[in-house]
Structure prediction request, 209 residues.
Amino acid sequence: MSAFCLINPQGSEARLWQLIESRTLPGSDKKKIDKRIWDLFGEEWAVMFTDLAGFSRHSAAFGILHFLQIIAESKRLFAPILTDHDGLVLKAVADGMMVLFRKPTSAIRCAVEMQKLCQKANDKRMPEDQILLCVGIGYGKVLRIGDTDVFGTEVNAAAKLGEDIAKANEVLVTGSVKGAAEEITGVQYLDIGVAVAGSELNYRLKYGR
Prediction:
């Protein structure tokens, strides 16, 4: 039995790492092991990563407690919208979240509604108090490890789009999201001309307020 399983004998994560460790053994049939892993953990999900713009700037100017307040206020705004669109929050770390949706259309609708609510709220806020949301969404087959984590190329792409490339008020999606989502009235896809690891074609959503 692997050392990992001895330390943590239960749960999906322990089983995954047991199978991963078996790939490292001399003569292991990696193709067979990989099929077992994907059969056990492979699922199709839309993955959303969110981020709040201006962390460094606002923290330096107004202090970390000010920005922590903005994070708390953003979560209060987003919680009911995520619930309405059946988003499953797997991680909420600092000013970012990782959220799963069964359908890419639900993820898009949720992201657009979150952006619109932020912009409406920001109309009544001072610049330093504004909630400036950045969103990235991917869709495809991922390895879902219970309610702990997900892994996959679309996960990596969504994280890159949401955390590094998207600007305030933007929703960026991979080509897989565009290809699988239903048509949504008032939403258009604009090619951003940037390829990220795991996705060659990526788009910015154009949506009205």
In short: The chain has a mean pLDDT of 91.
